[in-house]
Amino acid sequence: MFIETETTPNPASLKFLPGQEVMGQGTREFATPEAAEASPLAQTIFDTGEVVNVFFGGDFVTVTAAPGVNWTDLKPQVLAILLDHFVAQAPLFVPGSAGGIAVPPEEDGMLVEERDEDADIIAQINELLETRVRPAVAGDGGDIQYRGYRDGVVHLQMQGACSGCPSSTATLKHGIEGLLKHYVPEVVEVRAA
To answer: Locate the Scaffold protein Nfu/NifU N-terminal domain: which residues (predicted)?
Structure first.
């Protein structure tokens, strides 16, 4: 098995491509070692002691090194962990029952209270995010999460390599904001969540 690596716009993050599916659908971000306990793979990567974020995409894993960590030393460790995991066909997540899962109320996911009369605008925004923005952001080792729309302002949260990227503000303001304003005239601003 050969695992490719790609740089990302975030110099602290590397994107690892195992050549097979990582997440069947959706994405998952682990921003702390405690959160990584849900995944043996993420937990093992955090156990290196040199990682601050692990992100699972459809066919990639993005790892963000802690400040001051040299990728020359960390990369072989992460490659070995990924290789062991995928060759063994180990489960991505710890098996368990739904009893241990807490689902936050829907309003916790949104930053603003949306109005019913904005439903068409919100649908247009989400369609553009799915078809145009998410594929581009995934190419850089990250993801984007919709967090609400109200009074012309779209709230988005960057994940994976994109969450700590020095150019994420430019991506939001010049790239995504410009795209949304072009196709959805009601959008006047995009803000980071």
So the answer is: 3-89
